[in-house]
Structures are given as C-alpha cells and as structure tokens.
C-alpha cells in the first residue's frame, strides 16, 4: 500500500474523542445536642438553660465532565420534635445548592445558580457551615485563572420576591443587589488577595423602596514556611445604610508555630470599629462582617456578630490558642479577651472597655473514616460592662456545651467515557 492510499484510508476512519464523565453522590448528616446557658447573650438568673437536638440531612450530587459541572444539593434542617410524629407536612426541606458551571476555555468558567461563596478565611464571605442550614446565594460567578499564580472571580446577584409584571418592594431581609470581585495571587511562601464587595440593600421611605449602596473592600496577606505561619487583613466599609452614611473599618493579625509533632500554638487579634455610646449622630460607624462564617470568630458562644451586636460599640478581641491534632483526634483550647472598640456609657458615665473573657475547648474523634464525634464546652466570664451592653442584669454564669455526630460518606461514584464522532 503506497503512502497516498494509506493517507486516504486513515482519513476515512471516523474520528472518536473520548470524554470522561463522573457522577459522585455523597451525604452530610449531622446530629448536634446543645446545652445553652447564656449562649448568644447573657441569661438572667430567672431563666433556665435550653437543651435540644438539631439535625442536618443533606445529599450532594456532583456531575463532572471536561466542560460541564453540575451540583444538586437538597437538605432538611430540623430540630427534633419541631413537628408531630404523625405530621402531614414538614417545612424543613430546602435546596441548599443547585448550580451549573460551564468551562468555555481552559482559563474561563461561568457558574450560575444557588451556590456557596467562601473566600480567604471566610471573615467577609463564608458558607457558615457550623449552622445546620449554612448559607448560599442565588448568583452568577465568572472565574478566570490565567496561571497557577493568579485567580480572578467576579459575581453578581439580583433578588426579587417572585415573578412579577411590575417592580415590588423586596421584603426578604437581605440585599437586593450584590456584586463582588476577588483576586488571589501566590508566590513561594507568600499569598495575597483583594476583595471588593458592593451590595444594594432596600429600605422604605414614604412607602417607596430605596436602595442604599455600601462597599466592603480590602487586602489580606498570608505567609507560611515550615512550622511558622502568619496572616493579616484590613477592610474598610463605605457608602450608606437606610439613607445614612457608613464609615467603618476592620483589621486583624494572626501567627502560629508548630513546636512539636501534632502541637501548635498561636495568638492573634481582631479589631472591628464601633460607635461610641454617647454618639447621637445617625451615621453608621460599626463594621459588619456581612456574610462571614462568624461562629468561627470571637468565641464559640456567639456573643458578637451572629445575628447580634450590629451597629454597636464594635469589638477588640485578643486571643491565643493551643491545639493538638493527629489523623483520628483533634483538640483545641482558645481563650478570648473581649473589649469594646468604642466607649460605653451609662447615665453619662463612661464604663470600662473590658467586656469579659471566654474559654473555648473543643475535641474531636474519628470513629471511622467518614464519621467524627465532636464535642466542646465554653465558659463566659462577663463584666458589668458586658451586662450593660447586653441589657441584662442579675445574670447566671454563662456556659455552653455541644456534642455532635458528623457522618460524611461518599455513597457511590459512576465513571463513564462518552465517545463522540
């Protein structure tokens, strides 16, 4: 067979391209008992502690191919006993994630749908995974990765109550519009990122909806080499809220050192600006970590920025930590020393800024590969300034405990190869 005949024969063979596809199905089951005796705020001595069990039941279905990714993740979040044993209806079901991601170039991808946003240390944008319901957004996310050193993300969201033929006031207590841009770079032991977040929050004035725009922006740096790591961040907030001006800021710094196998010690601080108790102006001066995983910060008893302490005197949190970890065991002890960032006043008298000390201890055991038993206890030692801040007197000693069974198995994986002519 001559070369010409061979070439014609090869060209006449249908061309097949193999494309790998994969479906992964996993579960996230959590059962958490909590004892709350002054959790989230001081408890007066006339009140009794609360005990309950909460449960997350989540299925995660992921489809992956070279140009397409899909995720469907329904979940049920409930408190044991919140409906009768013979109830016909149950409002605990929700769709946590439902998105599609198209890769239209090796460096570009677009994701649209309900999705989690979690960036950097989750201080400004996090998925709040500690809460059983967690947090997700209805948004579009554009991703660009020109090289291994650089990553750019940009997102936008538009919220409405429902389909309508004319504009209606948005009644869900969150933003109507959201945009953010995030850049991350890294080289050797150093990494850096910059976040710019812009949100339009609705409010009513003379029965008409107005939009107050505010911005959160700033850099974060991290350094890690061998047994030492450190990070620092600074964010500013500008714009307005409900028709009033907003000017606030945040800074933090942390360092840690692995001094023996499995052992690590660290220390750090956070400063979130606040508004003085004798400041009668209408402007906002308190920094708000809008979408952060706030349970991760400022103590596990959630006295600050977990649905509370907004537009207040701010916070200075100085803390240390000591942790031990091996493959099937982990433990961590963290003391927090809290002070107000802006002055507190009562009847014209300035109070001491020191609010109290919290001690957090957590322990976790791996029973088998995908099952963890976690527990912890926290104690709050509050001062009179804390009592004034929280508006509670004659308080009990604040403490909180939890015990959680966490089960995260990968149920099955299906792999196929699609051939296209």
UniProtKB/TrEMBL annotation:
InterPro entries (UniProt xref): Alginate_export_dom (IPR025388), Alginate_Permeability_Chnl (IPR053728)
Keywords: Signal
Domain spans labelled Alginate export: 24-308
Extent of the signal sequence: 1-20
The UniProt record lists the keyword Lipid biosynthesis: no
This protein's name: Alginate export domain-containing protein
